[in-house]
């Protein structure tokens, strides 16, 4: 394991905004107060470079989900600063944050979250439709072809396999060309072969479309698809690995305990 490379490139308050797809500076987040307070994030500073696939790993309770929710602007922080695509989200009014999330952030969760009465294509385009936007038909075709969904677009979710449903969710996330896609155990509901397929597609979307992806996972095999793995323990970043094998990731995790 290499030492943490997550030190500050730009100190809080410096004039230049960080250049990462997503950046955190000195982020702190606690639940509760006083003696029972849980310090879920302690002074976390980190840059997620554009066009890269990063996995966040660590023992249960190490703060992975909290970090992802804070980075995505889904949860508030106590102190520190956060940026998405160069825009500081710290202190943004709720309406602006909601709009920014809708337009510039994609999500792929463990549950596919598709609307059962809509076709695959309608599910993919739903967020754009809800936002009153116009679908880029050429981009939709490219995404569908790349994800192998061409002949499934008129199917409803119950007519699709789990892997196909998750590919629809990935297509939905890619359609707005977001600054970042957050994945929360995106293969947690899939068998290993289907999961591998979805992970390979996520990796390809980085390589071929320049998509930035941040994925929380407890699965070293899933993390081995990432360009980089950041390791957390007790609410802090304790290390990082560049593209690594499942065994190497497992070994790094073993040193963290938990
Ligand atoms: P991980 O995703 O790595 O399992 P979490 O981010 O879910 O870790 O949790 C980090 C710590 O914060 C844990 O101690 C957890 O119990 C606590 N925690 C998370 N969410 C809440 C909450 N809503 N209320 C109180 N404590 C929480």
Task: Please specify the SSE layout and strand pairing.
Elements: E1 22-31, E2 38-48, E3 53-57, H1 64-71, E4 79-84, E5 87-88, H2 94-104, E6 105-109, H3 120-130, H4 137-146, H5 162-174, E7 180-184, H6 192-209, E8 213-216, H7 220-223, E9 228-233, E10 236-242, H8 246-254
Parallel strand pairs: 3-8, 3-9, 6-7, 7-8
Antiparallel strand pairs: 1-2, 1-4, 4-5, 9-10
Helix pairs in contact: 3-5, 5-6
Bound molecules: adenosine-5'-diphosphate.
Residues 31, 38, 40, 58, 60-66 line the site of adenosine-5'-diphosphate.
CATH-defined topology: Rossmann fold
Mean pLDDT: 91
Hetero compounds: adenosine-5'-diphosphate
In total, the number of domains comes to: 1
Number of DSSP-assigned strands: 10
Low-confidence stretches: 1-13
CATH class label: Alpha Beta
Give the SSE string. EEEHEEHEHHHEHEHEEH
Question: Alpha-carbon distance between the termini?
Answer: 17 Å
Largest sheet, in brief, is: 6 strands, mixed
> Considering the protein shown, what is the CATH homologous superfamily?
P-loop containing nucleotide triphosphate hydrolases
Q: What is the helix fraction of residues, given as a range?
A: 25-40%
Radius of gyration: 18 Å
Q: Helix segment count?
A: 8
Write a brief structural summary.
With 258 residues, the chain is an alpha/beta fold.
Architecture overview:
This protein has one domain: P-loop containing nucleotide triphosphate hydrolases (Rossmann fold, 3-Layer(aba) Sandwich). With 258 residues, it is an alpha/beta fold. Helix 6 (192-209) links the parallel strand 7 and strand 8 (213-216). The two termini are 17 Å apart. Helix 5 (162-174) runs parallel beside helix 6 (192-209). Strands 6-7-8-3-9-10 form a six-stranded mixed β-sheet, with helices on both faces. The chain has helices spanning 64-71, 94-104, 120-130, 137-146, 162-174, 192-209, 220-223, 246-254; strands at residues 22-31, 38-48, 53-57, 79-84, 87-88, 105-109, 180-184, 213-216, 228-233, 236-242. Helices cover 33% and strands 24% of the residues. The chain contains eight helices and ten strands. The structure holds adenosine-5'-diphosphate. The site of adenosine-5'-diphosphate (ADP) has 11 residues, from strand 2 and helix 1.
